[in-house]
Write a structure and sequence with these properties.
Elements lengths: L1 H9 L2 E3 L14 E5 L3 E5 L5 E2 L5 E3 L4 E3 L4 E3 L4 E3 L1 E2 L1 E2 L8 E2 L5 E3 L4 E3 L4 E4 L2 E4 L1 E2 L19 E2 L4 E3 L4 E4 L5 E4 L5 E2 L5 E3 L4 E3 L4 E4 L2 E4 L1 E2 L1 E2 L1 E2 L13 E2 L4 E3 L4 E4 L5 E4 L5 E2 L5 E3 L4 E3 L4 E4 L2 E4 L1 E2 L1 E2 L1 E2 L13 E2 L4 E3 L4 E4 L5 E4 L5 E2 L5 E3 L4 E3 L4 E4 L2 E4 L1 E2 L4 E2 L13 E2 L4 E3 L4 E4 L5 E4 L5 E2 L5 E3 L4 E3 L4 E4 L2 E4 L1 E2 L1 E2 L1 E2 L13 E2 L4 E3 L4 E4 L5 E4 L5 E2 L5 E3 L4 E3 L4 E4 L2 E4 L1 E2 L4 E2 L13 E2 L4 E3 L4 E4 L5 E4 L5 E2 ...
Antiparallel strand pairs: 1-2, 2-3, 3-10, 4-5, 5-9, 6-7, 7-8, 11-12, 12-16, 13-14, 14-15, 17-18, 18-28, 19-20, 20-27, 21-22, 22-26, 23-24, 24-25, 29-30, 30-40, 31-32, 32-39, 33-34, 34-38, 35-36, 36-37, 41-42, 42-51, 43-44, 45-46, 46-50, 47-48, 48-49, 52-53, 53-63, 54-55, 55-62, 56-57, 57-61, ...
Main location: secreted
Family: Belongs to the granulin family.
Keywords: Disulfide bond, Secreted, Signal
Length: about 1200
């Protein structure tokens, strides 16, 4: 404080542009007095003049004389030199380029554009115009353009250079060196390096510059130059100074240098005397290598008409086609879709596709080969061939039952209520939470909410609603909300959790763990980690979930809960479960968690036990860190009047202010902007700021301290103080030329067309690709697309459009699409690349390298690495880019192509690109692949060269296995009548059947379902099935045999038999199995005679009746009465199960005088006086009086049946089911 008072006594400070002695300082500068009574200018508005009479500091900072710095309580900056009232720098060094200058004692470094001495380098300064001395008239200066000859000149400060035609062009620096390519130039003292395209001397290299056009001298008429285009033939020519080169199609293209060497790839060229190196994509000679050049389009010779070239859509059939460079792929319905790649691999899900040479991985949703994996692509719609009508395709929804269905390509999954929902992928795995699903072959990981297999994991998918089958009425599902008490409930599939007030909230997961903060919850089996806000177990951590509101039970009135807000004082409070925290003004705000830690910035807060880290904006403890939370407004306590808080904006000056909790920072123009943090550090770029206690890192665009780095923040506009008029700031756009400008704080950069664009940084480095830019002091790395220096790399920035200067008319720029041939072109700034079909695609980079896969491309100067899918050079690797479609040149038409169906016989055919295969009935079906292998099951097929593996349902060869494909229906040949085929459904009983090529399997209820393969093995869970010869593995959910395992299949619904009629006299209508005219057994059993020739029932369908008249065996087994076993041979191994007893014909079993169950069921009590029927014989009734288990099992906690004996066919239906209510007699 003493220093400040002393400084004010010693120094006279006058703000404004005029000093007391009538000398002038610049706008927003400060006059500082020096001992002789004269003044110098401090470059800060209201700056602090230092006691050495040479330096000054920004407003609000003190001069530290011993350290040569400016400081305040928050940060330290280098002090600034004062300037003369009549010149920019006292005793400055004028640089040799006549444009820039350096401080006294520094040396101008023209190559680096810096001022250097032993202490280091600083950016050089640009000279400013002089101004007239008051009362003096400045004589008009003559135009000082640099004349090149009597008719044309270059702007002052530039250099005339000859062109290859003997005319003149302008190098945009004085006394420049004109390069021998007649196109570029270098600074004085540098040497042109044609190979590297740089300007070199002993101090290093800088990029060379391109010459610009001259302008006519006033009053002189520039003689017209004779047309000097280089004719390639009678119709097209190349610009003078370029070379005609043949294209692969036999047309012409232009190499943009004279007497060039045309490369053998028909796309690139090299300078005269160089040799094309196709492998390295360079031009080589004994002196070294330079990047090769891409040819450019020719232009028509005046008055000549260029012949039109034909185009090439890819026809899928006679009616639809895909765009050129794409691939036709079959859909599940037998229609067509388009893969946006040439010669693509069509995936077996009929929805996605992969690049040529890759293999579809349905489980991971990727395209794989030995080099790695890439995401698969979704097919796109075809477009109709002109003049053709596309036939309407029939719907093929997947029916879940008789009333609802899922869209084709999806899977029906049960909900927790026993209804249906749809998983949006085919043959999906339905997860045990009844809400999500996973791809085929993956396993649901409920804790991590992922789908896992040995190869890794992918996120699980949420099921979607079914839709009603047309003409069916969907029965209304009964409400199944989870009641929390008598008045409120949570939605089904969620969990009731207590709140801190003793009320209820809902966790959106079933059987969830309610966390101790009364706000969040975790999946079953996880533990709440309050510090990290995660759910943890041995497998890892997942984010916790926030509870949701309950809803009232119908007809109940929810009692009003007493207000339990947290009072902060007598007038304001925070919601229950939050914490009152003071603001910077001494008022109150609310942290949205209980018992929170209020941070020192008065804006944020942290969970209990955490410490606020202001620099990193996190909440830290020894276990780690979590993001901090922002406080929320309080609300008034009922009946209290909240006193109006005084305005607490932070005033920057008398006219503008920043919002409370922010910091005023100077702009480059001396105005004000707002940093959205309190007591922030204002960065030296005048655009960004950092948290208190950190340091601005301009190179990395971060805020750094000893604990690490965080991204810097951008300042925001101020707002006017009420009643004050903000003076209009003078426009401070950065003019690029007389017509366009960039916003203040940005940099003008040339485009490839010679126009202007804006880099969103001040004093930025304009990159050589003419599209991007880098921060000052960084170097553009075109290969890695980064900005590099010794401290590291940051991403480069894309330039933005300029805006017109007021009152100026911007000349219209000519269209600059890059033509690939006469019919298609790529957008400006991209590169034409050949496709595998010989057509064109667009790489989204200029002068890019086209990769050999015809699909991807790389930046100029890098090499395509097909194995790693990267672009490599000596500096490292970057990901390659995918080419994009071309667009037609206006007025060009692409011809249509024809297709052709594959005839199977005289009446039916398959679509072009498919294969005719015989069915089991001797008819025809279509394999959706060309020249396919027809499998022996008459239902599936494999790609050419593969072998059908019926057991694994795959197509195998030495390279591996892929899933087999299902054949599709043929279509009639036009004008032919297809003979009707007889129905060949597989009957399950007298009323229902399965589709041909499938197998009837029993359900747990004794009904029927269909396994979608022939002669299948029905699994013991009554839900799944396996291929013939495989064994169901219930634990692994697979089908196993000595050759290996494949995923099991889920059964599908049956459909009514077309020939079904009600049973006649002597038969009931319940589906019983008739033994003779007067006896029957229940459905799903088999009639067997006992030793007395009386009828009894075996509890299996199509069972084997043993000769002893007492036992029976399941289908596929034979009776071995001596050993008491049923025997079956599988893969030369013998499997045995116990014999099963046959039972008397159906009679009701009396539970008491009023209730009875069927003789295939077991009576179990549901209370002291009521009964229910367990749907298995000799069942164990559980003690909860709600469930039962099969014979040989005991009831255990958690809804499970534990096996206690060896396997017996009395307990073959292993399940845990709800009991059925008995019928009152």
């Amino acid at each position: 404080m003493l220093r400040l008072v002393l400084g004010l006594v010693l120094l006279t400070l006058v703000t404004g542009s005029k000093c007391p002695n009538e000398d002038l300082c610049g706008e927003q500068q400060t006059c500082c007095q020096i001992p002789p009574g004269e003044y110098t200018c401090c470059p800060f508005y209201q700056g602090e003049c230092c006691e050495d009479h040479l330096h000054c500091c920004p407003e609000g900072m003190l001069c530290q004389m011993t350290e040569s710095k400016c400081s305040n309580t928050t940060h330290t900056l280098p002090w600034a030199e004062r300037r003369s009232t009549t010149a920019g720098l006292p005793k400055a060094v004028c640089c040799e380029d006549f444009i820039h200058c350096c401080p006294q004692g520094k040396k101008c470094n023209l190559a680096a554009q810096t001022c250097d001495d032993a202490s280091g380098s600083v950016p050089w300064l640009k000279k400013e115009p002089t101004r007239p001395i008051k009362g003096q008239k400045v004589p008009e200066t003559k135009g000082s353009d640099v004349p090149c000859n009597d008719t044309v000149a270059c702007l002052d400060g530039t250099t005339c250079c000859k062109t290859a035609q003997g005319d003149w062009a302008c190098c945009p620096i004085p006394k420049a060196v004109c390069c021998k390519d007649f196109i570029h130039c270098c600074p004085q003292g540098k040497k042109c390096n044609l190979a590297a395209q740089t300007c070199d001397d002993a101090s290093g290299s800088v990029p060379w510059l391109k010459k610009e056009p001259t302008r006519p001298i006033k009053g002189q008429k520039v003689p017209e130059t004779k047309g000097s285009d280089v004719p390639c033939n009678d119709t097209v020519a190349c610009l003078d100074g370029s070379t005609c080169c043949k294209t692969a199609q036999g047309d012409w293209a232009c190499c943009p240098i004279p007497k060039a060497v045309c490369c053998e790839n028909f796309i690139h060229c090299c300078p005269q005397g160089k040799k094309c190196n196709l492998a390295a994509q360079t031009c080589d000679d004994a002196s070294g290598s330079v990047p090769w050049l891409k040819k450019e389009p020719t232009r028509p010779i005046r008055g000549q008409k260029v012949p039109e070239t034909k185009g090439s859509d890819v026809p899928c059939n006679d009616t639809v086609a895909c765009l050129d460079g794409t691939t036709c792929c079959k859909t599940a319905q037998g229609d067509w879709a388009c893969c946006p790649l040439p010669q693509a691999v069509c995936c077996e899900d009929f929805i996605h596709c992969c690049p040529q040479g890759k293999k579809c991985n349905l489980a991971a949703q990727t395209c794989d080969d030995a080099s790695g994996s890439v995401p698969w692509l979704k097919k796109e719609l075809t477009r109709p061939i002109k003049g053709q009508k596309v036939p309407e395709s029939k719907g093929s929804d997947v029916p879940c039952n008789d009333t609802v269905a899922c869209l084709d390509g999806s899977t029906c999954c049960k909900t927790a209520e026993g209804d249906w929902a749809c998983c949006p992928i085919p043959k999906a795995v339905c997860c045990e939470d009844f809400i999500h699903c996973c791809p085929q072959g993956k396993k649901c990981n409920l804790a991590a909410q992922t789908c896992d297999d040995p190869l890794g994991f992918v996120p699980w998918l949420k099921k979607e609603p079914t839709r009603p089958i047309r003409g069916q009425k969907v029965p209304e599902a009964k409400g199944s909300d989870v009641p929390c008490n008598d008045t409120v409930a949570c939605l089904d599939g969620t969990t009731c959790c207590k709140t801190a007030q003793g009320d209820w909230a809902c966790c959106p997961l079933p059987q969830a763990v309610c966390c101790e903060d009364f706000i969040h919850c975790c999946p079953q089996g996880k533990k709440c980690n309050l510090a990290a806000q995660t759910c943890d177990d041995a497998s890892g951590s997942v984010p916790w979930l926030k509870k949701e509101l309950t809803r009232p039970i119908k007809g109940q009135k929810v009692p009003e809960s007493k207000g339990s807000d947290v009072p902060c004082n007598d007038t304001v409070a925070c919601l229950d479960g939050s914490t009152c925290c003071k603001t910077a003004e001494g008022d109150w705000a609310c942290c949205p968690i209980p018992k929170a830690v209020c941070c020192e910035d008065f804006i944020h807060c942290c969970p209990q036990g955490k410490k606020c880290n202001l620099a990193a904006q996190t909440c830290d403890d020894p276990l780690g860190f979590v993001p901090w939370l922002k406080k929320e407004p309080t609300r008034p306590i009922r009946g209290q009047k909240v006193p109006e808080a005084k305005g607490s904006d932070v005033p920057c000056n008398d006219t503008v202010a920043c919002l409370d909790g922010t910091t005023c920072c100077k702009t480059a123009q001396g105005d004000w902007a707002c940093c959205p943090l309190p007591q922030a550090v204002c960065c030296e770029d005048f655009i960004h700021c950092c948290p208190q206690g950190t340091k601005c890192n301009l190179a990395a665009q971060t805020c750094d301290n000893a604990s690490g780095s965080v991204p810097w923040l951008k300042k925001e506009p101020t707002r006017p103080i009420r009643g004050q008029k903000v003076p209009e700031a003078k426009g401070s756009d950065v003019p690029c030329n007389d017509t366009v400008a960039c916003l203040d704080g940005t940099t003008c950069c040339k485009t490839a067309q010679g126009d202007w664009a804006c880099c969103p940084l001040p004093q930025a480095v304009c990159c050589e690709d003419f599209i991007h830019c880098c921060p000052q002091g960084k170097k553009c790395n075109l290969a890695a697309q980064t900005c590099d220096d010794a401290s590291g790399s940051v991403p480069w920035l894309k330039k933005e459009p300029t805006r017109p200067i007021k009152g100026q008319k911007v000349p219209e720029s000519k269209g600059s699409d890059v033509p690939c041939n006469d019919t298609v072109a790529c957008l400006d700034g991209t590169t034409c690349c050949k496709t595998a079909q010989g057509d064109w695609a667009c790489c989204p980079l200029p002068q890019a390298v086209c990769c050999e896969d015809f699909i991807h491309c790389c930046p100029q100067g890098t090499k395509c690495n097909l194995a790693a899918q990267t672009c490599d050079d000596a500096s490292g690797s970057v990901p390659w880019l995918k080419k994009e479609p071309t667009r037609p040149i206006r007025g060009q038409k692409v011809p249509e192509t024809k297709g052709s169906d594959v005839p199977c016989n005289d009446t039916v055919a398959c679509l072009d690109g498919t294969t005719c295969c015989k069915t089991a009935q001797g008819d025809w079906a279509c394999c959706p692949l060309p020249q396919a292998v027809c499998c022996e099951d008459f239902i599936h097929c494999c790609p050419q060269g593969k072998k059908c593996n019926l057991a694994a349902q795959t197509c195998d060869d030495a390279s591996g296995s892929v899933p087999w494909l299902k054949k599709e229906p043929t279509r009639p040949i036009k004008g032919q009548k297809v003979p009707e085929t007889k129905g060949s459904d597989v009957p399950c009983n007298d009323t229902v059947a399965c589709l041909d090529g499938s197998t009837c399997c029993k359900t747990a209820e004794g009904d029927w379902a269909c396994c979608p393969i022939p002669k299948a093995v029905c699994c013991e869970d009554f839900i799944h099935c396996c291929p013939q010869g495989k064994n169901c593995n219930l634990a692994a959910q697979t089908c196993d045999d000595p050759l290996g395992s494949v995923p099991w299949l889920k059964k599908e619904s049956t459909h009514p038999r077309q020939d079904w009629k009600p049973l006649g006299k002597g038969h009931n209508s319940s589906g019983d199995i008739p033994c003779d005219s007067s006896h029957s057994c229940p459905d799903s059993t088999t009639c067997c005679k006992d030793v007395d020739a009386n009828w009894k029932c075996c509890p299996f369908p199509q069972a084997i009746c043993c000769s002893d008249g007492e036992h029976c065996c399941p289908p596929g087994y034979s009776c071995d009465v001596d050993s008491g076993s049923c025997v079956k041979t599988i893969w030369q191994e013998t499997e045995t199960v116990p014999l099963n007893y046959i039972h008397s014909l159906q009679n009701d079993i009396q539970c008491d005088d009023e209730f009875s169950c069927k003789d295939t069921e077991t009576c179990c009590k549901t209370s002291q006086t009521t009964w229910a029927c367990c749907p298995v014989l000799k069942a164990v009734c559980c003690s909860d009086m709600e469930h039962c288990c099969p014979a040989g099992y005991t009831c255990v906690e958690g809804g499970q049946c534990a096996q206690t004996t060896d396997f017996s066919w009395d307990n073959w239906q292993v399940f845990f089911s709800k009991k059925k209510q008995v019928v009152v007699l």
